[in-house]
Amino acid sequence: MPQASIEHLHIPARNVRPLPQKMVNYETAKKLGIGVRNMGVAMDMIDIYKRYGADALQTSVTTPNIATPVQFLQNWLPGQVYVMTAARKADDLMGISTIGSYEDEEIVQPVLENIGYAVPYGDYTNVALADVNQTYEARTLVRFEQGLRVGALEEMRSSRVMLNLASTRRQSCGLALEISRNLVAFNGYNSGSDKTYGFLSDPNLPAYISVPNGASGSPLWSSKTFLEITADIRASIVGLRTTSKGVIDPSRTPITLALPTAVIDYLSVVSDYGISVWEWLKESYPKVRVQDAVQLDAANGGANVFYTYADEVSDFSTDGGRVWLQVVPTKFLVLGVAKMAKGFEEDYANATAGAMCKRPWAVYRATGI
Questions:
Q1: What is the pTM of this model?
Q2: 90-367: CATH topology
């Protein structure tokens, strides 16, 4: 007859429990069915059984994955990268004048014209009387607002990713208001009968003058030579001197050359002697400063434009002699802050009257570059 199997150990179900490590040795492990001679391995197996018991293996019920979750392998870079917005150049081109108040409806510039001519003297002739004619150029104020609301829960959660939600939204409000003001400064604001104009749309501006074609058959500066580009710039400066009847003297009068952003780098075109347009300009007209603005790209029916204008002129005027005026009564105003049960709300505003060309004869506009 076959020999009966020997039962080395039986543990009733009620008595199954973790085995204390101090009781683990080779003989005990053998009785538990751990047939190893390396007690280090035995200890590992005892540890597994201690936690999971001796359950039979089962099929996988979890999704295969890496051993270490990816969030433990991430390294977060400092700071925030903001989405780009176009450069705002209205202030660089025209300056900014804080005049008036947020609640004003218009800003008004008086314009005075002398009337009358001197005539040959005669003892018995009538006295030739001088007179003045005063008119008023008005611009309508435009007000914009931008607010924010922060909830209690979202503020708590944003702080967990080191983001000051209120502060960043407040900065976003300021940026949005500045973008709106800059757009009005260039393009004006059409709201019916209101009179709010910009650097490109002021009704007093002179007509555009088309630049001539170069030897390539194109007026574009991208196709023109050093001599052809300098000729276009020179023509604009000559135009200012001529139109102003000599009031604008390029050797003494501060002048701005406003170029499209897409074109300004063609000032690096060099002559046969290695001199760039930029160097020629600095040498020939040191009073001319150069600024670029993306709003001048394709500004005239798809054609690039450039402006040459005096910053200010010296005459009998008492307004300071400025050619361009950008009036901003209120750049940033806190309208109100409201505390709510589940957060808070803030509202901000600004006010602008756009741009006014006070001396159109001191502006030369060219198109086609």
A1: 0.76
A2: hypothetical protein PF0899 fold (3.30.2320)
